Amino acid sequence: MNFIFLHGLLGTKNDWQAVIDRLPNQRCLALDLPFHGEAKGVSVQNFEETCAYLSQQIRSAVKNEPFFLAGYSLGGRIALYYALQYQGMKGNLQGLILEGANLGLTDEKEKADRWLNDEKWATKFCLEPPEIVLNDWYRQPVFAHLTDAERDALIHKRAPNCGENIANMLLATSLAKQPYFGDKVRAKNSTFFYFAGERDTKFRQIAAAHQLNVRLISKAGHNAHSENPDEFAMRLYDIRNLSKKA
Length: 246
Prior knowledge:
Blueprint: E1 2-6, H1 17-21, E2 27-31, H2 47-62, E3 66-72, H3 74-84, E4 92-99, H4 108-127, H5 130-137, H6 148-158, H7 164-172, H8 182-187, E5 192-197, H9 201-209, E6 214-217, H10 224-227, H11 229-245
Parallel strand pairs: 1-2, 1-3, 3-4, 4-5, 5-6
């Protein structure tokens, strides 16, 4: 069984290395999303184009072998679209592991507000120095659990990947453009697994609102796979074992 990992906005495939190192007996692959890391020059306009790129990378890497797709935050939302909406080839997808991923909005005003907010952030990423925009980014409520030292470390880590490319990805894959997937996720409860850090209040509330069976990662906030890779990897082993019994 393969695990394929998708990072969040501002990240790279290297964000998953600590988890991969704890899965020595599993075949693992982490991918850079468009506008990020080694795929910084890959341009997409929307979710469909993003998933077409993803499909190409997956087919090249695992052919038709079975795989689980794990995505964090933006990577989780892209994984959702890939599994439930994308019209192209999806390979032998066995299930999704969603970490801190939003299932979508149903209210049109919420979508409009989100689009305006993403446009605001896109402008900041285009015009402001990385240290300034990232300091603001990591002071959003979802990152409230971070200490000053942890926030400074993230700013230093993300600054080289920061700029107009992030603005482009933010607008191409805005939550305002994402379909609502809550009903479909609940219908596929046996093959969709939702992870959240125990200190990630926002996404624990989202999981509860959607009546999802959330798997909590202890001593972690929004970025649970980075903050507690040991427990995250153990949870993935549990899912692998469940799939073998099915």
